[in-house]
Fold this sequence. Notes:
Layout: H1 4-7, E1 18-28, E2 31-40, E3 46-52, E4 61-67, H2 70-74, H3 82-96, E5 99-104, H4 113-124, H5 129-135, H6 146-154, E6 159-163, H7 167-175, E7 179-184, H8 195-205
Helix pairs in contact: 4-5
The structure holds guanosine-5'-triphosphate and zinc ion.
Amino acid sequence: MIYQPEIKPNQPQNDIEVRHVATCRLPTEWGEFQMHGFEEVISGQDHVALTMGDVNHGEPVLTRVHSECLTGDALFSQRCDCGPQLQAAMQAIQAQGRGCIVYLRQEGRGIGLINKIRAYQLQDQGMDTVEANVALGLPVDARNFVLARNILRFLHITDITLMTNNPQKVETLQDAGINVVAREPLIVGLNRENEAYLQTKHDKLGHML
Ligand SMILES: Nc1nc2c(ncn2[C@@H]2O[C@H](COP(=O)(O)OP(=O)(O)OP(=O)(O)O)[C@@H](O)[C@H]2O)c(=O)[nH]1
Ligand SMILES: [Zn+2]
């Protein structure tokens, strides 16, 4: 049973305006990307996009819209699959020589790092990822993907192949005006610690795992 009410608000998401600030080289283990820095006009919250190759012409652009996960992306946490997903996406882009990572600073599905730690504390006591947010009186998913649309627009990327297991993300991006021509699954980083978490993402959040 998909957990509908908090997760799938039927109203369109707010249009959060971003401005591009600067672009630099980002050499990585998976080749050299261009890193584009953006700021939300009203809040000043920063976000980045990485691009490789010519993303303005030709075939749909292999794209990952990644939500910040400090614990998984930078601290090697095994509670989730975020770090391995980010690495697999960068590797896939390197293999094609072309693609884009939109890295949104929407930690903890938008509830922020400290609230995510609060949620993890409740999960240590037996709640699942959805129940913990609800118990804290927080939305299950507070992310805004129109932001990703605005960043992709700045980069003149209109047609994408999206690397994700989350059909809701595909739908929201489509609704925001991005042409998601295909979805590539990103099933990596499974371990004993995140088995139940991934099961909940499948059962309650509709992830295709
Ligand atoms: N609130 C909360 N956020 C979490 C938890 N585990 C991971 N996150 C955050 O979830 C976000 C990633 O969302 P996921 O549900 O893993 O995946 P997705 O982006 O919806 O879908 P994919 O494209 O398939 O990765 C990141 O911002 C993580 O910090 C958790 O237990 N509670
Ligand atoms: Zn994570």
